[in-house]
Fold this protein.
Amino acid sequence: MSGYHMTPDEFRRWGGEAIEWVAQYLERVEELPVAARVAPGDVRRALPAHPPERGEPFGALLADLDRVIMPGITHWQSPRFFAYYPANTSGASILAELLAAGLGVQGMLWSTSPACTELESHVLDWMVELLGLPARFLSTGDGGGVIQDSASSAVLCALLAARERATGGLSTRSGVDGRLVVYTSTQAHSSVEKAVRIAGLGSDKIRFIEADRHHAMRVDELSARLTVDLAAGFRPCLVVATVGTTSSGAIDPVAAIARVCAQHGVWLHVDGAMSGTAAVCPEFRFVNNGLAQADSYCVNPHKWMFVNWDCDAFFVADRAALLGALSILPEYLRNAASASGAVIDYRDWQIPLGRRFRALKLWATIRHYGAEGLRHHVREHVALAQELATMVAQDSRFELSAPSPLNLVCFRHRGGDAINERILDRLNRSGEIYLTHTRLNGRLVLRMSVAAAQTQRRHVQRAWRAIQSASEAQGVPPGATSRPDTSTTEVSLP
């Protein structure tokens, strides 16, 4: 090779081969064991110890993709993947990601690629309309949206903006005020505590508010804790509410929380990472209750909206505090467009300086499905989850552990933690389905998230049969219970 680069003709050939590989994978992913079938270190042992001295044809990589990589893949795109949360992708999103990679733009400033910035602003305004979000999140006003890599980055940016506002910019200039305090539910995502650590407040400055019997934040506890901290000389700066907690799908009472925050002048961030997508359907817009009073909000199109990872839509009602916390302008970034004040420079809305053209895949996905297509799939997933919840409730061996208003069903075998753990291990080892667990009220609970792009009724029914069979393998036949757990709590279907 004289130039070492892949020629355009080679790119066409291998590009076609790569797309064909992906297409075949999506066709056969349902047939594959859902969880990876390797032991720790297996993948590394199959790789050469040293990098190649001479370049290899791309075909060799495709061959090793099958030989080395595929055995170590847990198939998040499987219609029998019910663990954690969805990490969906789609044809339109994959192709748009390819286009973005081909363009290879760096969208840190409007001037470094105007289309990268303006498409992002526009498509996030589309998201406001699609999800029925408050108009104060539109880019045409004082607020606006930005694509972060994840909800974890979104809550960190919200905290930095809240810190900026609470101290009038003093923490940004002089260091962290040791009196700043953050509040969230005991059921909130771990990213809240990580953000508190990164922002320099320290884990001792996070107050975990108790949850009610439906695992949602107790507003009376929040109000009481704020009052105590204020009297003790602390400075509350941020409350994080959740719409659809990871453990149980619980929905915090955002409207009531917002009233408490307004009373004390505290920034309210709402995390709707997965469940926020439900608002594409008007009948599920209860997930938006109280958002009109929130200072910031995030939802992940890379979970339930068929946009491949990474794509978190983060909105602020007033971007001034966010820019105050994150904007630094060295000489080498100065330009006429930025100086004019007529453009958005998204480098000021995030932690890194550089940024990819992520808006392209969000744009492509919305255009491909349309609001109609997105609503169809969300409704289908919710309906399937409700059917599953009904099946659980009708089996005397099992019980529901939390309400299931959307697409997450939490349940457990009445026989106790040990049986539930054995059922979970048996199912995941089988490759038939993949589930994860949590703990609610101190008890081990099985979680089943119905949201993979290709999941249909037959997959949910097959999963339930597998769960029943795993139960029977523990010596508990249908219609019977084993060592009943008398501490369980009744949970009503929504």
Summary: The two ends are 65 Å apart (CA to CA). The mean pLDDT is 93. The chain has 16 helices and eleven strands. The CA atoms of residues 83 and 436 lie 5 Å apart.
